[in-house]
Write a structure and sequence with these properties.
By secondary structure, the chain is an all-alpha fold. The chain has one domain. About 50% of the residues lie in helices and about 0% in strands. The chain is built from 3 helices and no strands. The radius of gyration is 18 Å and the shape is elongated. The model has no long low-confidence stretch (mean pLDDT about 85).
């Protein structure tokens, strides 16, 4: 198998894992879409509202050892 190419077994495992996460992923996406993140200069929302979205995205990763590089 060429370097970087996935085996059929690995692809099958990834497909199964993604199917198990489908409902959770859809719920997470719906949660993100509900958060106002428009440009406050163009929409009538409070400046900085996008930080709420950032917090929601960060939450699942807290405790994993992943760090924000900002």
């Amino acid at each position: 198998m060429p370097d970087g190419e996935l085996s059929v077994a690995t692809i099958a495992k990834l497909r199964t894992a993604s199917q198990h996460l489908e409902a959770e992923t859809a719920a997470f996406t719906r949660q993100l879409v509900r958060i106002p993140t428009e440009n406050p200069k163009l929409a009538q929302i409070e400046a900085g509202a996008e930080s709420i979205c950032q917090d929601v995205i960060e939450a699942p990763f807290s405790g994993t050892g992943m760090h924000n590089r900002s």
